[in-house]
């Protein structure tokens, strides 16, 4: 009997001795980090409201209870019974019965009403039909990404169960090593912005955190091929953790599967969907620009299939000696600070990913309360000594000023933006400003996946700021459904119409003007001195956005949409930069994040910033808070224990 | 045609165009780092005295010329002719003809006379017989190690040629990577003394430097199994470089071959032989102490077979982007500071190995002149703020005092010492002291390989201090041949005789009292209050030697030679420590080594010292010379470019 089988047999014995005699336990298995208990008496299990919680705390595992399939009522009958239990107002849009696991997936517009107070409705469903209910939200705005992901996962259920079982056995394998150490190897985003990637390793476990591209230097990948990363084979990695979906963190995650990785990706559910959206677009852009994409869309599907979603605050075993907890990072939808608890109290490391410390319209500010963190790996995008941003309130005033002035000149406002994050923040600003009469009513065109990204936001309101979440739950208050928002889905023709029409606001990707429809908008509006190009986000070194900010006005148009190839464009429109909308904490925010941590970490690695930013931040944190701080280079390894 | 074959074809063309028309070039191959030119006209080649040097400088390669085998005179004739050319006084002891390569190995007591002025005699041999002469010294004291190694290499010639050809093709392969970086990974000897081991890596090349054991903690190996070391497979290592033969640097070199390593070991010839001696003893000791040896003696032979000896000062290509030069380290016979020139002027790193900066009786002080060194990895054994040693002259006085006092009490002096290095230094001190009447004439017993180690010293006088070398060349002045030196080769019986006999001096391994015959000597003399145990070398933490220095007088004798197992011994003999004989530079010596470097390195990694020693030295070098200094932990990686 293998070590894991022995463990499961022991666990089953414990469970049998803990549950009332009338509940029969037929099987106990691992599915990813969860312990799954099969029972012939799912109803009695459900009646003992506290039983699962007691078992979870006793076994120190996350627990799922499933009915043995032969005690289930047939789907046809069950369907009616489920409908009868759930209140009409929940607006169920889909019921999907999985006979292999005894689960019924309920898609509803109001998931809360399916769940009931403290899960009472769910328990009632199990009591009635035996099936285990799982609830997902019907996207308030139709999202092809969300429905594609859900359909794909439905179709791949068998494969996915195999993966989860394998991963579960890996996680719960016996510890092998007597050694004790904790190390971080930097594979990218050190003294640079882009290609975020790290290895966290112990004698037992190797975790890869992020694998992004570098905007403006598309051929500079993280150093995945060195021995300490994938050099010993992709299967030597136990787990991949993705902090958020921005391409500078996620672009090369699917590549891992091409390299033979076959393990789990831990991330939040919205990050999974956004990663799908953004990496598929990444492949598109590469193809359009004539670069060979490093992987194909099949690998994106592999990544989605291998994702084990985890929720903020859940403590998850990801290997015999590491527990992962993700916390809101305030940066984009689903973005997470990833906290690793290593050994039994041996060491704690947190990777900030990208963070925003203060609340924004979209998100609550980043969490910085952890029971313990000895080492913090901290983004430093705005860590430079002068990187203090304007307050967002002032920035909003300035943006509205620019919009009013441009409107009065009969010009349009063109805003390059990431599809995900700042676009939705700006939508909220613009919606409010028009509603309150601060700026004239005019169309706001969303080009290049922003619409789709917005739809994903509305699918996961739990990840948005509290008051915004509540508004989204009411269709008539959902700001993203406001009339002035228009999805550019008619391509060049529609863009030409917009150009020829009345003054408008255009939000378009890419956010750093490195390709995408913004190139086309620049051609349309670039020579119009009445219009204004307005930067609202960080422009990395080497990107066209940064160059235009620095005064370039002759723009090579060789990676546009086929027209103007090899030509240059004289930029005659106004160029403005409004900071303060960043999804990143500014210098003050970064310091506040660290300052208010309790206890403060002993060590901080400053990463994800230009050379001077990481140096400035590292030196400031050292001098002000007397922590040991570092500004690592790529390809270095730090040992902590 | 492979890339290397193409390169060789091009090289052959160049050579043909450079040599006079009457010299035919039949083949050009690589043997390890050397380019071997085969010619049907070895005599004409030899006549053109300057030709080889010109080709070497044009091709930037080390060059060996070999005769095509069908132009050689038959060995029987050649033997007489060779004898007729070499002067009688050279005392040739062996002539060995290798028909596969056209080499004749000449073993002589006076190799210099076989070589002649600027190699004139060698050239004369080639002109007469066509064979290429190679000269080795007949050991003045018979050494079974040296003769075993030589016989073994003779017997393995075919294998060895295959290895050299393979290595040669590896070294001269085309560079594959566009990346540029230089990294050092620490696998051992950081914040500790023992288990020296490093990886030096570039995108092209991975070099392992040293792989030693840890005295007093025999199960603590260097971290060879991590991905950045052998984790990707032992064959991912391009080259192994061994700084010197002490076990804390060499013990696990043979283990690499058990792990599948099949590449070259670069080191000096004496280090090769001493490594053979010491690692075989390491296996013996492990067996005697009931530990499972990590490899068997076959692996020691593999290590010897894969060694490519290099001489101090020779610049050797060891990979497409790295050149190695070894320099005298002044520490033990053959010890070398290993200097790596990376890329074409990209970066230079020197690993000090263990060094002694001042001249000693045995060795010239460590070389610290290098064209460039940006990073120095520096031993710090005596780097602590108080680690200033007595001058050796004063130490010698003190030692002689102890000997005289002990002698007057009718006691004996027991000195634990490494077989290699300090023992020979002490022999020189004692020989002179007795010759000059400073201490009474009495037997000096050498136990545990010291005799053999001494024989190896006399085989390689070129590696000794100039004036000592000259004395060794004259039998009547060779201090190691003095009458009072006695080789303990009669085991326990002889030890008992010594104990029962007149006062004597005993030098015995192991140097840190971690096993070996010193344990037996302690049993013999331990309870004799008239005798004196005298430490003259560094005692690492965790060793019995260090404990005795700290005042322990109840000594567990459970790893002795079978007797007294499990007993404790009450130590009643005097215990003295005389520093100043160390093979290591003291704090002043380390500082002087760095201070007088020109130019000084930008960065220094302080290693091979207790935690406080490396911290002290690192901080002192930073404050005094304003260099960036580090006290790495094991398992860290530093990037330099
Ligand atoms: Zn981001
Ligand atoms: Zn980022
Ligand atoms: Zn970012
Ligand atoms: Zn040494
Ligand atoms: Zn050493």
Automatic annotation (TrEMBL), chains A, B:
This is Transcription termination factor FttA. GO terms for molecular function: DNA binding; RNA binding; RNA endonuclease activity; RNA exonuclease activity; zinc ion binding. Zn(2+) 1 binds at residues 244, 246, 331, 354. One of its GO terms (biological process) is DNA-templated transcription termination. Residues 98-165 form the K Homology domain. The keyword Magnesium does not apply. It comes from the Archaea. Residues 583-641 are annotated as: Metallo-beta-lactamase C-terminus. Residues 181-385 are annotated as: Metallo-beta-lactamase N-terminus. Homodimer. Interacts with RNA polymerase (RNAP), interacts with the Spt4-Spt5 complex. Keywords: DNA-binding, Endonuclease, Exonuclease, Hydrolase, Metal-binding, Nuclease, RNA-binding, Transcription, Transcription regulation, Transcription termination, Zinc. PROSITE patterns: KH_TYPE_1. Its cofactor is Zn(2+). InterPro entries: aCPSF1, Beta_Casp, KH_dom, KH_dom-like_a/b, KH_dom_type_2, KH_sf_prok-type, MBL, Metallo-B-lactamas. Residues 423-548 form the Beta-Casp domain. Its EC number is 3.1.-.-. Terminates transcription on the whole genome. Termination is linked to FttA-mediated RNA cleavage and does not require NTP hydrolysis. Cleaves endonucleolytically at the RNA exit channel of RNA polymerase (RNAP); the 5'-3' exonuclease activity of this protein degrades the nascent RNA released from RNAP. Residues 73-140 are annotated as: KHb. The keyword tRNA processing does not apply. Residues 194-418 form the Metallo-beta-lactamase domain.
